[in-house]
Specification:
The chain is an all-alpha fold. The chain has one domain (about 35-185). It has helices spanning about 1-20, 30-60, 70-85, 90-100, 100-115, 120-130, 140-145, 150-165, 170-175, 180-185. Helix 2 (about 30-60) crosses helix 4.
Length: about 190
């Protein structure tokens, strides 16, 4: 009887320890890849919008004068409505993801050449932060463009083109599909 008791104890311990493993949910890598380009570009626009909102708040508190205050406010509201609309339309989001491939690849190439230690989201965030706070950044010309911060200019130019004009959400979508990457591609 003692002979089998040791084996029963060992098998029961193995059974107990193996039952404590958490069940892993299957990850949908294809879904994650669908949104990779979209999320990266939108994160850049969100960072730009974050800075614009700070400027609006400073203007409202009389800490900083902002020209075209009303235009900025309208553009930010349009952006928020557009992003909400895109989030509610997953098919449109997938289509935009494929349309953003060229812009994503161009930004990724610049990041790989100039800041391989960072992720693309970090690279974009740092580029926008460097424009907003130039004293904290070093060698921005080498990292983000030859003359100016081309990464920041890419988001600035596209934001103004898309959201400062009097476009409907559908018009913005059509223009959003073809982001102008000349600031990053040609002038880097």
């Amino acid at each position: 009887m003692y002979k089998y008791l040791k084996q029963v104890l060992i098998y029961s311990l193995i059974l107990i320890y193996s039952c404590t493993d958490k069940v892993k949910e299957p990850t949908n890598t294809q879904q994650a890849n669908y949104n990779k380009n979209f999320n990266t570009i939108i994160n850049g626009f969100n960072k730009y919008i974050e800075k614009a909102r700070e400027d609006l708040n400073k203007h409202e508190k009389d800490k900083r004068q902002l020209q075209n205050y009303d235009d900025y406010k309208i553009a930010i509201d349009k952006y928020d409505k557009f992003i909400s609309w895109i989030e509610d339309n997953p098919d449109t989001k997938k289509k935009l993801d494929t349309d953003f491939t060229e812009a994503y690849n161009c930004l990724e190439q610049r990041r790989a050449e100039n800041a391989p230690e960072k992720t693309l989201d970090e690279y974009i965030r740092d580029a926008i932060d460097c424009t907003n706070n130039p004293l904290s950044c070093k060698d921005t010309r080498k990292k983000y463009g030859t003359k100016n911060n081309q990464i920041f200019l890419f988001f600035t130019y596209n934001f103004h083109t898309l959201f400062h004009s009097k476009n409907t959400l559908k018009d913005i979508l059509v223009k959003f599909k073809t982001l102008d990457i000349s600031e990053v591609k040609d002038k880097f």
